[in-house]
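[RESIDUES AND BACKBONE]
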Amino acid sequence: MKASILGLCLLLMGTQASFAQTASTNSSATAPTRAQQEIIDLSRQKWQWMADKNVDKLAVLFDDKSKFVHMSGTWKKDEELDIIKTGSIWYKNADVHDVAVELFDNTAIIWSRITLVAMVRGSEAKTEFTVTEVYKKQASDWKMLALTFSSVRDTHVIKH
């Protein structure tokens, strides 16, 4: 009898652990797991590297096949790094208002609602976006596979 109950408990724990995890920085949500916080921190660090035009760090973070979707087009890693390096787009400051993270095995998706202040071809722009980033764990490091900017109103809310 004890063995049956123990077996049932282990089965339930294993089943629960196999489901995807979700988290957010919304105050009404539960605290993020360690893995989710790692993605949140990495995303915030990426915004700082973009502001600093630190293409060396970004080159390591971006997967070689990564894609970037902006309001004016879609391009690949080398083009994104060149845009950042030359200042064609200078991501001066990303004020992150809210994030939601979902983990699926070795893949993470993070949605961030931001106010972005950027210099775009010499003109400063302040725009509200929801940014979707997709990361994949490769060996011991996370690599960004995709980054997509979606223009939204400042009242836009991310569903958690």
Notes: The first strand starts at residue 21 and ends at 24. The mean pLDDT is 83. Strands lie at 21-24, 62-70, 73-76, 89-104, 107-120, 123-138, 141-151.
